[in-house]
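Consider the subject:
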Amino acid sequence: MERRRREITLSIGMISYLEWVPSAESGSPVLLLHGGGADSATLSWGELAPTLAAAGHRVIAPDHPGFGRSPRVDEPLTQERLVGYVAEFVDALGLDEYVVGGLSLGGGLTLGHLLTHPGRARGAILLGTYAVMPRLTDGPLSALTHFLTFVLLRTGLLNALTTVYSRSPTAMARGLKDIVRNETARTPALLAAVIDEAQTGTGLAVFGEWQRDQVLWNRLRTVYSDRLPAITVPVLLVHGGQDRGVPPARAEEAAAAIPHSEFVLVPGAGHWVQRDRPDLVASAVVAHLRRIDRATPAGSA
């Protein structure tokens, strides 16, 4: 298995991406889309991708514009621009008969890609996915919490608080503990990598731009829930049982709405589920890919 980093220039700008190439390719190529905040292709997929490559899949994982090693673009990022960049990336690499997957924001981009370009991907993987709930939170205080977040975003206070937060190793450690509940997976190396990404990259600022586009005063701009029945490819939804960002019940509802879906709940795991329990997530994803390849072998009519 070979791991390499490459660059490609799209209309949105230069995109840096990682590629894991198996010694013998025997399954569908897999496109993986990381989440928001202090995230990147390396951080989200550094553990999962080698396992998929060992199972015979070529894995491609871009750093979204402004994240990781992809430079920030001039115009603020919106959901529509990001969904468009994913499609252009697929075209530029000449991907065919691929499976697309994503975490959180990347899950929302995966859904947007499936709905905007039906029939292109052979299947999908959603981890703690965005765009399946109307507000940022559920519960009796959800409307108030959502509105306060809207105010913080519009006044710039949330950006200022995030900047202060990113400079505190103690605060970053608390934040990581919330999304990676498994103590053995929450290694000093992972914490150091997240802190480095937060302090040296532009991902947090770019994520703030995307949030300002998405968080309206009373709801989220992008909610795909009503359109999920239109997705006809096999979809695997993997969700942490202790995900505080997207309640597991929302992922279950999404799975019930997608005609050909499988829902896997990972007990005790948080929002960054593939970093939290890489063993359980990898086995579920590999099994899903095998089912897709058995049902419709690559290259067949």
